[in-house]
Amino acid sequence: MITSPFWTDQFPRPADLPVSTELPSHVDVAIVGSGYTGLCAARVLAKSGASVAVLERETIGWGASSRNGGMATPGLKQGLSKIYKKYGPEKGREFWQASVDAIDLLEDIVREHAIDCDWSRSGHVALAAKESHLSDLESYADWIKSEFGHPMTKIPRGEIREEIGSDRFFGGISDEISGGIQPAKYVFGLSRAVSELGVKLFEGSGVESVHREGSRFRVITGQGEVAADEVIIATNGYTDRTLPRLKPKVIPVGSYIIVTEPLSLELQDELSPKRRMYYDSKRFINYFRLTPDGRMLWGGRNDLSVDLDLEESSAILQAQLTAVFPQLEGVPLTHSWSGRLGVTFDLMPHIGKVDGVWYANGYSGHGLSIATYLGTELGLLISGQKERSPFAEIPHQTILFYRNRPWFLPFASRYYRLLDWIN
Ligand SMILES: Cc1cc2nc3c(=O)[nH]c(=O)nc-3n(C[C@H](O)[C@H](O)[C@H](O)COP(=O)(O)OP(=O)(O)OC[C@H]3O[C@@H](n4cnc5c(N)ncnc54)[C@H](O)[C@@H]3O)c2cc1C
User: What are 36's strand-pairing partners?
Assistant: First the structure.
């Protein structure tokens, strides 16, 4: 079994991706991190005429943006009822609409730059893992319909086989606006698109510190330094102490994925007749789908830590997989890998500034379309094409005594496991 992402194994970073080696002395905007957030901000800024450098510690697209499940679904990680309660209906509506617009934006970007990334709007199904969860899902669908006029379909248990080749679930709700993508093809396509717009891409250029000097910033990398009028930190789950005051605002949480060998067309049709994106209703959720080449991809975790052994985690994931799809008993796995989510204490994505430096992060595992959207928002805000974003207007809190190591994660893991067991 290969312990690196299937997506980059299938589609490695293109050898002809134009990366630069010599840092310029000055750019209008320096962007730290080359995932969807950084590249989408770069795209807007370059189009507005700014000179932009994207500085990546590893290789372009190395982070979560080439490792994820490739499932673009509406909503945010935080539930909308909680969002409404906390921020009121007006903001709540803006957040929901942003999540819907984010999927359209992703599709527009893919079309505009002719990115060949297997994007397909095949819809998603949220599945009730316990009988009591079905009424919650159905009430959510009713509420979304009445509040936004957005249709979702209720799937009673008796009809679930039309959606999934499993008897493990108690029903669910489906939404046609969701889609699937090959995430590595998307991130490498984006990189090529921004480089064609004039953005300079740098690899092996970990940013060590950022210093304010007058109206500019000095960005120090392992390969030298660059002066910039604006700096964006787009490092999400890989955020380090480059800006010590940013680190405690985002918690790195591990997410783990396995994929099987390609399945016969007959078995694919049985397991996923409509090629949906799926997730279940547990706190430690499982998310899964068929890959464009017909493998079952199965993601999740039963621990929040970032460094679980990949052999061990694949055994846990495989047991979950075959409990849902007994048809896959004995089907060999080909890949097992992990990546880091950037989770916030309020489960909301945020745009903000720390010490004059911009950032967007906190997608909490729901960042394929939302990072695309927030990166774009950042670009629009910095280039003056937009005056406000709801994601920049909510407090971004941390907790006392969290500076570097998320010491509370083992306690949170136990708590969530207990909740999944009880409820
Ligand atoms: C296993 C997994 C499955 C997921 N599945 C889904 C899914 O199905 N649907 C969905 O919506 N979301 C999913 N997500 C979340 C989604 O992938 C992320 O929210 C999104 O990719 C974040 O993009 P980003 O650009 O902000 O960060 P990333 O793509 O993580 O990029 C951050 C980059 O910053 C670089 N970096 C860090 N520090 C420095 C430094 N000091 N100097 C230079 N570079 C630095 C890192 O090397 C990294 O490449 C998943 C995530 C994971 C890990």
Answer: none
Whole-angstrom Cα distance, residue 372 to residue 219?
A: 24
**Atom 35 of ligand 1 has which residue's CA nearest to it?**
33
With beta carbons less than 8 A apart as the criterion, state whether 187 and 36 touch: yes
Distance CA(144)–CA(31), nearest Å, equals 36
What is the pLDDT, as a whole number, of residue 307?
87
Q: In this predicted model, what pLDDT tens digit does every residue of 294-332 receive, in sequence order?
A: 999 999 987 788 888 899 999 999 999 999 999 999 999
Q: How far is the CA of 192 from the centre of ligand 1 (A)?
A: 18
Is residue 410 within a helix (H) or strand (E), and if so which, with residue range? helix 409-422
Q: What average pLDDT score do residues 356-372 get?
A: 97
Q: Look up residue 308 and give its two tokens.
A: 């679980």
Nearest alpha carbon to residue 413 among 189, 254, 296, 262? 254
| CA dist., res. 252 & res. 193, Å (int) | 29
The DSSP annotation for 222-253 comes to: TTEEEEEEEEEE--GGG--TTSTTTGGG-EEE
Question: Residue 414, Cβ neighbours under 10 Å: how many?
Answer: 12
Residue closest by Cα to atom 41 of ligand 1: 207
380-406 average pLDDT score: 92
Query: How many Å apart are CA 276 and CA 174, to the nearest integer?
Result: 9
Q: Is the CB of 288 under 6 A from ligand 1?
A: no
How far is ligand 1, taken at its centre, from the CA of residue 288, in Å? Answer: 18
Q: 258 CB under 6 A from ligand 1?
A: no
Q: What's the burial of 312, exposed, middle or buried (CB within 10 Å: 0-12/13-18/19+)?
A: exposed
Asked whether residue 198 carries a pLDDT value surpassing 90, the answer given is: yes
Nearest residue by C-alpha to atom 50 in ligand 1 = 68
Average of per-residue pLDDT across 89-96: 96
**Closest ligand 1 atom to the C-alpha of 256?**
1
Whether 141 and 173 have beta carbons less than 8 Å apart is answered as yes
Distance, C-alpha 306 to centroid of its chain = 15
Nearest to residue 351, comparing CAs of 380, 378, 319? 378
Distance in Å, CA 364 to ligand 1 centroid:
10
Place of tokens 């109206």: 215
Predicted local distance difference test score (pLDDT) of residue 133: 95
Q: Which residue has the tokens 């909740």?
A: 419
CA distance 96 to 120: 21
CA 300 to centroid of ligand 1, rounded, Å: 16
CB of 62 within 6 A of ligand 1: the answer is yes
Give the tokens for residue 44: 């807007």
